[in-house]
Specification:
The complex is a heterodimer of chains A (about 425) and B (about 450). Chain A has about 425 residues and is α/β, with parallel strands linked by helices. Chain A is built from 17 helices and 16 strands. Chain A has two domains: about 45-70 and about 80-275, 3-Layer(aba) Sandwich (Rossmann fold); about 280-420, Rossmann fold (3-Layer(aba) Sandwich), CATH 3.40.50.920. Chain A has helices at about 5-15, 20-35, 45-50, 55-60, 90-105, 125-130, 140-155, 175-180, 185, 215-220, 235-245, 260, 295-310, 340-350, 365-375, 400-405, 405-420; strands at about 65-70, 85-90, 110, 135, 160, 195-200, 225-230, 250-255, 265-270, 270-275, 280-285, 290, 325-330, 335, 355-360, 385-390. In chain A, the strands form four sheets. Chain A has a seven-stranded mixed β-sheet, with helices on both faces. Chain A has a five-stranded mixed β-sheet with strand order 11-13-12-15-16, with helices on both faces. In chain A, strand 3, helix 6 (about 125-130) and strand 4 (about 135) form a beta-alpha-beta unit. Chain A is globular, with a radius of gyration of 21 Å. The two termini of chain A are about 35 Å apart. Chain B has a six-stranded parallel β-sheet with strand order 2-1-3-4-8-7, with helices on both faces. The radius of gyration of chain B is 26 Å and the shape is globular. Chain B starts with a helix and ends in an 11-residue tail after the last helix. Classes of the chains: A alpha/beta (about 425), B alpha/beta (about 450). Chains A and B meet through helix 2, helix 7, helix 8 and helix 9 of A and helix 7, helix 8 and helix 14 of B.
Amino acid sequence: MPSLSAPQILRALASRNLASRSILLHSRRYTEAAIEPPPAGGHSPTIAHSPILRTTRDSALKTPGIVWGSDADHEDGDKTGRDTRKMNMYQAVRDAMSTALANDESAVVFGEDVAFGGVFRCSMGLSEEFGRERVFNTPLTEQGIVGFGIGLASMGHTAIAEIQFSDYIYPAFDQIVNEAAKFRYRSGGNFNVGGLTIRTPSMTVGHGGLYHSQSPEGFFMGAAGLKIVVPRSPIQAKGLLLSSIQDRNPVIFLEPKILYRSSVEQVPTSSYTIPLSKAEILTPGTDLTVLSYGTPLYTARTAMSYLAEPPASIEHLVPKPLRSAKIELIDLRTIMPWDVKTVVESVNKTGRLVVVHEAGKIGGVGSEIASTVTEKCFLKLQAPVKRVTGWDTPVALAYEKFYTPDAIRILDAMVETLTY
Amino acid sequence: MLSLRTIRARSWRSIPLARTIATSETSAPHSPPQRHGFLPGAPASAITTKLHFFNSVLEQSQIPTYRVLDGSGNIVEGAVEPEIDEAFARRLYHTMNLLPVLDTLLYNVQRQGKISFYMTTHGEEASVVGSAAALGSRDEVLGQYREMGVLLWRDYPLSSVMGQCFSNENDDSTKGRQMPVHFGSPEHHFHTISSPLATQIPQAAGVAYALKRDTERRGKDCAICYFGEGAASEGDFHAGLGMASVLGGPLIFFCRNNGFAISTPTTDQYAGDGIAARGPAYGMDTVRVDGNDVLAVLGAVREARRRAVTGGKAVLVEAMTYRVGHHSTSDDSYAYRARQEVEDWKKIDNPLHRMRRYLETKGWWDAAAEEALKDSQKKIVMEAFRAAENTPKPVLDNIFTDVWDEMPWILKEQKEELREILRKYGDVWEPYKTERVKFRGNGVLEP
C-alpha cells in the first residue's frame, strides 16, 4: 500500500482546519527553497509498471485519439518532431493549466491553497508565472468557490476552480446542480457557464478514511447539463483537462489522487487535447468486456494478468479453460455524457460485461451502464452484467483493503461471468 | 515595538509565546506593554487589559437609516438632495408607477388562472427603481426575483415581461422554461433569475472579478447583487461576501429588508442589527438607507457605486422597506400579519406617495399629469396583456435543447421516445391533445 509522507499527511488532512494557515507558511518555505516535497501517494508497484502507461516518447506521441493544438512549429501535423517530458499526473495537470493560462488571457485558477502550489502540487509555480490575479487562493468555502466560478464563467471567462478533495464538493452541490448544470437551459441559451471547470482529487489513497477517499461521480450523473471526466494517467489528464477547459459546458474533472505521483508517462509538451465522451479500448478482446475508469483500470489490468497466469495460491480457483480468455478492457474516461457506442459495440461482441468502480454500488455509475447495456444488448448478453464496486458503506479507514475493489474481486467477477 | 514585517518573519512556533504576552493572564511580561498584538488573524488589534465583550457595530444603538425625503415628500432638514433634474425625476416616477400597474394586472390574471404564478413589488418600488436609476446602463444585475423594476428602468419591452409570465414564444428570458418573474436579458445586462435563494450572491463576486479583469470595463462598470433579508441567512450570503471582500471587484450588495421572508418576520430571521451590521464584519463599506425614500436610495447607491467602481471593491447597502403585497400568488399574508398593519403601511409610508409629493413641491407634477400617466400606463399594459394571451407557446423542441451546448445521444433518444408517444397518443389522449395545440406548430417535434 502506498503511504503518505508526514508533511503530505499534514497538508492533505490538516488543511481542513484552522491549522491550514500554518501549513501555508511552511509550504511557502518549501517553494522558496525549491525543495521537491516527498511523494504524496507513494508508489504502487501495480501502477508504476503497468503496461497501460506510455513510458516512451514514441508511444506517447501515438496516443490514440490525441488532437494536436495549433502551435506554429507543427502546422504540417508532423508528430515526429514533438517533444515529450517525463511527468507524473500532478505535473501533467499543472502543465495543462499552464497551457490554458498561456493561451487564454481570461483563464484563472483558484481554490483553497492553490497559490503556493496546491496541497497536491497541481498548481506549482503557476502564481509566480501568471500572477496572483490569475492564480489565487480563496476563502475556505466550497459553495463560494463554485458560485464565484459560475459568475466568472457567465461573463465569458475561463474559470478553473479547485475543490481540495471531492469529499468536500457537497457544500457546492446546490451551486453545481441547481445553478451550473441548469444555467444555459433556464436562460433560454442567453447565458451559459461553459467556461467553468471544477477540478477535484478523488478516489481512495490508501488511508484517506471517510473524507479523503470518496468517488462522488454518481451523485452528479443525473444533473443534466454537466460533464464528468476522470483521467487514468498523465497523458490522459493533460489532454482531457484541456478538453474540459475548452468545452462549452461546465465540467467536473475528478483526478484519482493516488495516481498523482504513482502514474508516470512521457507527456507531449506541446498543446493537445483528448476528446470528451469518447471511451478508449485499452486491450481488445472477444470474450468479456471490463469497463472502468481511473484507478481501478490498473487493478483490472492486474486481474487480467492473474486470469491468464494465476498466482500459485489461487490457481485452483481459476478454471484452466478461462486462462486463454480474451478480455476487452475499456477506459470510459467521460462519465457523462458517456460513450454508449463503444460500450455497446464491445458488449455485443463479447456478450459479457463487468463494470468496476470505487464508489458504492447503489445509485452508482455501474447501475446506469448496466441498465442501458441490458436495454441495448439484451439478446447478445450471455451473463448478467456484473458490478464490482465499493461496498455501500462509507470508506472506513482501517478496512480500506477490504472496501476497494481489488484485483482478486475483479478476477472473481471475471471468472463468475465467464462461467455463468 | 515590532514592525509588521518582523512579526510576519517570525516562525509560527513563536506564536504561543506571543499569546501569553497578549493576554497577560499567566505571568507578567518582562517586556514593556505592547500596543498591538501580532497574531496573523488580526495584526492591528490593540492589546487591552479591560475585559470587554461587545455586541453591536455601534455601542448602545442601531445603525442609523439614511433619509432625504420625509413621509410627506419634503426634504428632511439638513439632508442633501441627490443631483436630479425634472426629466430624470419624472422618469423615476413613471417607472415606479408602472410597476404596480403591471403588478395589479398580472396578480389578477394569475387569480383567474391565466398565468401560473406571480410576485409583486408592492411597497418596494423606491428601493428597486431608485437603485436601478443610480446604476450605469451596462452594470451587471444579479437579482433574486422581486427586481422587475430594474428591467423596466432599462426599457425592457412589455411584450417580453408578458411573454415570460405567459411562457409564450416571446419569453426571450427562458424560452418558456422557468416560472413567471424569472426574467433575464444579456442585452439589458440582467442575469437570468433562478429560484434557489442567495445562489446569485457568490456568483456576483465572480461577475465583479470578471469586470475587474476586463480591461475594457475596469473602472467603468460594476455589478449589483439584490437579495432579501431572508436570503441573507443562506450560507451563500456568507460565502459571497467573504469571496467578494477578499478577492475584490466592483460590486454593490443591495439587500431589500422588507420585514418578511414569506411568513417569517425578521425577529425570527436574525438577532443582530439587520444585514448592515454584517458588512463591517467583512471589511465592507456599508450603509443603511430608507428604502421607501427614492431620493435616499438613489443617493446612497450612487455613492456605493462610486466607491465600488473607483475602489474596485464590494460595498453593502441595506434598504429598509416593507413588503406591502403578499409574498407571492401562492401566499395569503393575512394568515400571519394583520390586514390593518398592511393598510397602515400603504398610507403612512408609501414610496410612490412620497415621490409624488416631492414632484408636486418642485412644480414638476400635478393631478392632470397623474391622471394622464395612469391612463397611458394602463393602456400599454392592457395591450401587452391582450397580445400575450393570443401568442402561442414556443416550439415543443425547446424541452430538449440547451441542456448541453450540443444534444447528446441521451437526449436524442429521449426526444425520439416522446415523438413516438405523441405519434401514438397525441391525437387521441385528451390531455395531450388540448395541451399540444397551445405550442407553435401544434406541438409537433422537429426532426
